From TrEMBL:
Annotated protein name in UniProt: YdcF family protein
PANTHER family, per the entry: ENVELOPE BIOGENESIS FACTOR ELYC, INNER MEMBRANE PROTEIN, PROBABLE PERMEASE
GO cellular component, one term: plasma membrane
A Gene Ontology BP annotation from the UniProt entry: Gram-negative-bacterium-type cell wall biogenesis
Domain DUF218: 4-134
InterPro entries the UniProt entry points to: Cell_Envelope_Assoc (IPR051599), DUF218 (IPR003848), Rossmann-like_a/b/a_fold (IPR014729)
Species this protein is from: Rhodovulum strictum
Amino acid sequence: MGHAILILGAAMRPDGTPGAALVRRARHGAALWRAAPGAMVLASGAQGEAQAIAAICRAEGVPEDRIVLEQSARNTAENIAFSAEILAGLGIVRVTLVSDYYHLPRARLLAARAGLRVVPAAPRHGIGRPHRHAWLVLREAAALVAALSARRRR
């Protein structure tokens, strides 16, 4: 049974270049791979996100043959569901889950529901603009409540 580093996508800029969150996550995932070079890196996200993660990881020293792309996910639930299918096919259930700290609680919940054993890993993140930070935390809190509620309805 292997180990994977699952890097969740983040928004691309309107010009098609990766946004700051995506770059931050990809670089952190590459650094984690350098500490555990036997791991696979799974880059997840549609609309160029997975490809951008892979390109950043390659630039940071991750070999092409250690990178797997999941290119269909348009949101966190899909990131986890589609990635879990790929990981199952590879016989991997132990995952280092890379995302920003405010996003990890919901991503971890969804990963656990998908049967993945997850270790969370958030890149260092400055507070940045206080209003942006507050918006991200509030948005994720609401999404986490929705994810918890969705489980109860089933």
